[in-house]
Specification:
The chain contains ten helices and two strands, in the order ββαααααααααα. A two-stranded antiparallel ribbon has the order 1-2. Helix content is about 70%, strand content about 5%. By secondary structure, the chain is mostly helical. It is elongated. Strand 1 and strand 2 form a beta hairpin.
Length: about 240
């Protein structure tokens, strides 16, 4: 049997239509579990939130929960991946701005802090779970993604059409990006442990300090021009 499609007067196999609905329903249910769990983690705390509570709040049976996730740790991990992808997108946003590399880093700091302020407790829980993962390398993909984004930001500072070609040609972009991610994660770690930590201010200050050292090419006077000054210093009694 076939069912007539609702678009364009064509035909669509009934089996395909049913499969599409099942896939969509499963995706919607998966997202509903994530959102429900996130609300409970933020409201009641991660430790006191059980799979049974998540299932009840999502109006599903615990068995249905386990059709989507192995444990509540898996739920939190997937939420964490989403949070890191949001930070990655914040870096991508800065690539579109016709500004200097320093201004792009400042823009990331401002937007990142704003993202955290939308749901501070949930973000704190997620970052704590991901950054303190029990298995080594568990957060590796998320951190590598952020590092790749920062490396792209730095390379943009070398483009011929860049507002300011402020990234030296001899800068190890991959290493610099790794350091940038370390600075961001360090600031986040301080904020995780101290809710009063001035995240945006510290991020801006740290990134500015780092950019001053790495991004701005240093100009050194030629040796010939310095030699007379040294000679005069030696002649001074």
């Amino acid at each position: 049997m076939i069912a007539r499609s609702q678009t364009g007067g064509g035909t669509l196999p009934l089996g395909d239509a049913s499969e599409g609905r099942r896939t969509r329903r499963r995706r919607e249910l998966h997202q509903s579990i994530l959102e429900t769990a996130a609300e409970l983690f933020a409201r009641d705390g991660y430790e006191t939130t059980t799979v049974e509570k998540i299932a009840a709040a999502a109006d599903i049976a615990p068995a249905t929960f386990f059709n989507h996730f192995r444990s509540k740790e898996d739920v939190l991990r997937e939420i964490g991946q989403d949070v890191f992808s949001r930070f990655r997108r914040l870096v991508d946003e800065q690539l579109e701005r016709p500004v200097t590399s320093m201004e792009r880093l400042h823009g990331f700091a401002t937007r990142g802090a704003a993202l955290v302020r939308r749901a501070p407790e949930m973000t704190r829980r997620v970052l704590m779970a991901v950054l303190r993962a029990p298995r080594p390398g568990e957060a590796g993909n998320e951190l590598a993604s952020m590092q790749a984004a920062f490396a792209q930001l730095l390379r943009r500072g070398r483009d011929d059409d860049a507002p300011a070609k402020d990234v030296p040609d001899d800068l190890d972009v991959e290493l610099a990006a790794e350091i940038l991610v370390s600075v961001v994660i360090g600031a986040m770690t301080h904020w995780i442990n101290d809710p009063d930590y001035p995240l945006e201010g510290r991020l801006r200050a740290s990134l500015t300090l780092l950019a001053d050292r790495l991004l701005t090419p240093t100009t050194t006077a030629p040796a010939a021009s310095r030699r007379p000054a040294r000679q005069r210093q030696r002649k001074t009694p």
